Amino acid sequence: MSTQAHPLETRVVSRRFDQADAYTLQGYLASDGFKALDKAFAMQPEAIIEEVKKSGLRGRGGAGFPTGMKWSFVPKQSPREKYVLCNADESEPGTCKDRLILEYDPFSIIEGMLIAGLAIGARRGYIYIRGEYRYLLDRMEKALEEARAAGYVGKNIRGRGFDFDIYAHTGAGAYECGEESALMESLEGKRGIPRLKPPFPAVSGYLGGPTVINNVETLASVPHILLHGGEWFAAFGPPKNGGTRLFCLSGHVNQQGVWELPLGFPLRRLIEELGGGMRNGAKLKAVVPGGSSTPLLPADVAWNVNLDFDSMAKVGTFLGSGGVVVLDETTCMVKFALRIMQFYRHESCGWCVPCREGTNWLQTSLTRFHNGGGREADIALMQEVSQNILGHTFCALGDAAAMPTISILQHWRQEFVDHLAGKPCPFGAKTAVAVGAH
Known about the structure:
Largest sheet: 5 strands, mixed
Helix content: 40-55%
Shape: globular
Strand order of the largest sheet: 6-5-11-8-9
Strand content: 5-15%
Distance between the termini: 11 Å
Low-confidence stretches: none
Oligomer: single chain
């Protein structure tokens, strides 16, 4: 992608992407680096959390939970050590934004973790990096080495009596480890499977200690919020949807890329003005609004919805991870459902039956259906199986597999009926799209 700003962008988190040396400590310090940390040192922990609450910052990894509220759940007094974990296990198909922060602005993640540590009273943090992003490990570790040598990480930071060390750790490339409890299991050296909740990480997380887990973009937003104020950040978006966020646009558009926009920006303008419109002048058929786990939107809804948490909820979907995948009229939705299910069946950790058996059964059914061997009764059966996965699994992976399938069966049921005519696929060679931009 181009690192040059688009005229329609509002660059906050990505403001250093076009700065050649921002990944070095010298470059970071030259562009307001660690000024927010200095400001945080003069604040009480409660005041830091309150500022983050004012910003309206909601988790940028997919769940959209208010960040300040999450921090406030950590008990002030605890006999166990507290931790800050950075979830850099970016694996949601269609999403490729966190890697840009890891590559171009790694010190913003470090500064965000330090501020989180001050707010909750933690002394140690870990950055859990997706296995496929191993090439970014050297850059992250180099940044940590520079920060440690300059007294920004380690003992008695900036002579303020604050100890906080940070370590980078790579996963093995499992989507499941993006789920917070599976991430902690993996970080503890165990199989990356989800934990039963409660207790929640804020009370009993990594090694049993109170733990805050935030996404890369979330933590990278924190220094900007502390430096300029929570109200400043909140003003970029509509009420309860504060700030900006990075959107990854892929699929059947003329220009794919990652852009930072204020929340509430119209989806139509993202496609037409930043994405350059539909590829080959084709008609829009569907949009995956927030990564492959989110329910799809038909064209008439997509053209009229804004990119913020509440607007998406009103039309029955989620802003998710910010991965927007555009599908045009040539797309076979049965094949697209199959592509999504192939991913989730492969990535299911197998820990709970509804997810393990349900994704396998749906993949088998969708494959048979797409190849011309489906039965009319299978349509209702796939709907029933998806509904039985939804809400009945240990973690959200089962929901992630079920929700897009349910939406496809709801909005494009006729395409399943068309496949019953005995032809392998009514769309022929013009079919599907690779899920994701990377």
